[in-house]
Amino acid sequence: MEKRRAILIILDSMGTGYLADAANYGDEGSNTFGHIVEWYDEHQGEPSGEKYAAIGDGRVPEFKFPELQKLGIGCIDGFVDGSGRFAVENPEGAYGKLRELSKGKDTITGHWEIAGIETPTPFKTYPDGFPEEFIKQFEEKIGIEVLGNYPESGTVIIDRLGPEHEATGKPIVYTSSDSVFQIAANTDVISLEKLYKMCETAREMLQGEWACGRVIARPYELHDDGKRVRTSDRHDYAVSPPEETLLDKVKAAGQTVYCVGKIRDIFNGCGVTDAVHTDNNMDGVDKTIEAMKTVEEGFIFTNLVEFDSEYGHRRDPEGYGRAIMDFDNRLPEIKAAMRPGDILILTADHGNDPTWTGFDHTREHIPCIFYGEAIKPGVEFTTPNTFANIGATIADYLDVGKLSIGESMLNEIGKQ
Fold first, then answer.
1. Distance between CA atoms of residues 337 and 2, nearest Å
2. How far is CA 114 from CA 327, 367, 381, in A?
3. How far apart are CA 327 and CA 325, in angstroms?
4. What is the CB neighbour count within 10 angstroms for residue 127?
């Protein structure tokens, strides 16, 4: 029997339209991919924003994603506006959209559900900042006062509080609509090692009454032009999954679980055999292809975070669209690296509509495409859906047993 591999790439936050319960989250009407298309339709040919003024001819380009179209993304029911303008005849992949069964719209909830865990109670959030009692105890443990402690965009808060932080050495703490405690610091003021230790302290404390899904280190640099730029040394400190996931099952079966990007952090190392850090989306693609050259069998699990961190949260539709096109240009390389026993899955973990209000994730469907010699092309799956169907299908394909939730779609999309 040929060795099998599943390559799962999370296009972080690339939602395809709001869920039925999105109004409960303030997200009714959101559509990450659809609103990017609309933005480009409206602005094509106009001068690009300052960030992209030197790219190409300095104007907003036509928004094209032909490789994703070939795989069938435009054939998904209701994709963008439901007009079918991006559909192709004879798509190469099996395709559909999935809804989130869990409560929430954060990174951990989405990834955990993909891997077979439902989160029926959302992780605790802190819309007014963390309790004063916690902050005081945290300050005592790290030996210095903190700045901030309110919900804000990471790039905004380091511009606002950076000068005071750099003058006093006090770290910046902040949160969002997700269950996160984030610590930002200029690495010339607080070393990376010391920042990580502060995060480890917070992680130990944020349990029980002060439960929190993730603690995130957010290092940045102050450049000569006065701009404060976050570095790629971000590190996430998550809680461990409450039960066995797809990763654990693949590892227990003696197969490789190779994680690219922040996947290892999201699962707190559980079920991981190998992991590699990434600097950006294109580095993530490079390292995924490298893994495809060396991993003999098992699971390669990649997160491409820039869609979310650089463009969704920063409400930058032009940048998000350019990132989609950059990834689309790399898809032929990924496909060329595939072996006969491989299946490739492209999906997301939540939405982050760059045209939406605020700076937080949006509660949306996720697109899902399966591709490979073992997959029937042109099939739109109809299996009663949850994100967990992805993990259940991978578990079935790798023959590692069933997950606690989710239904394998191999009978529907796999070649017999």
1. 16
2. 21, 12, 16
3. 5
4. 9
Identity of the amino acid at 316: D
Query: How many Cβ atoms from other residues are within 10 Å of residue 292's Cβ?
Result: 20
Residues facing residue 180 across a β-bridge? 214
What is the mean pLDDT of the segment spanning 150-177? Answer: 95
Is residue 291 classed as helix, strand or coil in its secondary structure? helix
pLDDT at residue 346 in the model: 98
At 122, the pLDDT band (50, 70, 90 cuts) reads: confident
- What tokens appear for 63 in the block? 């928004």
Q: Which pLDDT value is given to residue 159?
A: 96
Contact 97, 368 (CB under 8 A): yes
Torsion angle, alpha carbons of 22, 311, 117, 408, to 10: 90
Give the model confidence (pLDDT) of 99-108 as tens digits.
999 999 999 9
Residues 79, 16 contacting (CB under 8 angstroms): yes
Q: Which two tokens stand for residue 108?
A: 């951990």
* DSSP, residue by residue, 181-244: EEEEEETTTS-HHHHHHHHHHHHHHSSGGG--SEEEEEEEEE-TTS-EEE-TT-EEEEPPPSS-
State the DSSP H helix or E strand holding residue 247, giving kind and residue range, or none if neither: helix 246-252
Could you tell me the pTM of the whole model?
0.91
Cβ neighbours of residue 305 closer than 8 Å, sequence gap 6 or more: 12, 261, 262, 278, 281, 284
CA 97 vs. chain centroid, Å, equals 16
Q: What percent of the chain has pLDDT over 70?
A: 100
Task: State how far the Cα of 131 lies from the Cα of 123, in Å rounded to an integer.
Answer: 16
> Is the pLDDT at 416 greater than 80, yes or no?
no
| Cα 403 to Cα 22: distance, rounded to the nearest angstrom | 27
Going by C-beta distance under 8 Å and a sequence separation of 6 or more, which residues neighbour residue 67? 328, 329, 331, 332
pLDDT band at 1 (very low <50, low <70, confident <90, very high): low
The region of weakest confidence among 1-10, 11-20, 256-265, 313-322 is: 1-10
